[in-house]
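Worked Example 4.2. Consider the chain below.
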Amino acid sequence: MDTWAQTDWWRRAVRCPRCAASLREIDARPFCSNVTCEYSGSGFPVVEDQPVLIDFAASVFERGMYRGGNGSVFHRDVSRRSISSRLHQLTFGGNQVAQSNCARFIELLKQESERPVVLIIGGGAVGDGADELYADDCLELIGTDVYASPYTLLVADAHRLPFEDGVFDGVWVQAVLEHVLEPASVVNEIHRVLRRRGLVYAETPFMQQVHERGYDFSRFTRSGHRWLFKQFSEICAGRVGGAGVALVWSIRYFARALGAGDKLSRLIALPFFWIRLLDPLTRGRPGSDAASGFFFLGRRTERPLDPHVMPRYYDAQR
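Applying the procedure from the previous section yields the following structure tokens:
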């Protein structure tokens, strides 16, 4: 972690999220260099020595959230060692799909660059199955989230990424797009900050209940997820958690609907962990129609996907 956390690369690439001008005093309290911009006077907050580069006028997040603490409105278990995190792991298992895709993501990055630069959106905690990203010394990681953590270098709203165009070799956005107001706008920003032939890896839920309270907005079918990334050519895509995982989620949230709290509902769902072990038996379109979530690994392209292919895309699912 020290290798990338101490990098100065991001200081040369950051820009004002309002007007895209360069920033001054980035190591103290950042200000926009454009004198006509609001943030040339008010500047940007700093939490835990990390700049908060958010255009608050266009964000669900407010400046007042970043006056103390790390800026999170929720308790965050970035270590994944709390009782709730351990129960979740026991019930739903590890994300072997992400682990395998992470290895391929890194392999493809290294084919294009000797030292790839990767933006991690929603990087306040290490994503399930993403550990290899942080273990590989050949990668330069720029972690961002809407709160500060030991894994982030700056705080940002993905609707307006505070970076120059075309500066990243890859973007990793895992379990994030359901929590943004406008997922398509975020994907447009990902396309903008990626270099030509840059890679994106995304995981997004489909059959999952609300799990981030007032910051949980969207779900996607597999076809919807593909169309969301219409400005990218598909390398591979598929399920992250099948119908069994989705059913265990529903059992837990049924218990919550009956009045069980967070920890009790996790305990109630735990004996049903075995249901997810049936997921490898699910196949094809019926399996995708009932899946818990989906992944997409793709490469930036300059020609968007033709909408006429989408019905055939569904029919081709295996």
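Residues 83-315 form a domain with the Rossmann fold fold (CATH 3.40.50.150). Residues 179 and 212 are 8 Å apart (CA to CA). Compare this with Example 4.1 before moving on.
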